[in-house]
Amino acid sequence: MEISRQNTEQLQRHTEWLQQNSELLRQHAVMLQHIVEVQEQLLRDSHDLKEWRRGEEGRRAGERFEIQTVKRAPRLMNGGDGGTTDQPHVRQRLTRWLQALWQQEPDQYPEGEDDPTLADLIWWKGDRVAVVEISLKVDGRDVLRARQRADTLRRAGVNALPMVIGEEWATPDSKLLADQNAVEWMLKGDVSPGFIAFRRLTDEDTAQI
Asked: Could you tell me the fold of the domain covering 72-200?
């Protein structure tokens, strides 16, 4: 009887030990799962941070390129005058040009993609006016914005020419879209015939606006 009682007690202690260890193992598994989840979240955060940095670097590079292009405009365009649309003499010209359109279409006004006052660069030589979108990688939206904003000035009677300036095409289709929409372009190592023709204009070739 004594041996049986001892065996029973040992079995009971062993069972309790197993239960305790089972609980410890469960807690340990929960902790490991939590650690794995934290590590996965850290990896996602690290990836998101890298993507944000890459995007931020791209945005800053784009801003630098736009600023440099605007500063180089007299050389790139081979003369003429103009600037960004927040410069007083450019805004004055735009207001004068668009005044005719406001009178023709008093209930309408261009917004967003159609608005030439939001163009990256307005440049004129005599009566020819370039409406320019600037981007490191020129995509279809840049092309269409340039055309639509030039179209707005054309409706106001301005001899406007849509242009894009960049380092490269975002896709081959972007260049095709530019050709289809008669948008002139200057990209690194490549210039459209219409852009060349605009650069060749001189004061003798054009009448003053």
From this structure: Trna Endonuclease; Chain: A, domain 1 (3.40.1350)
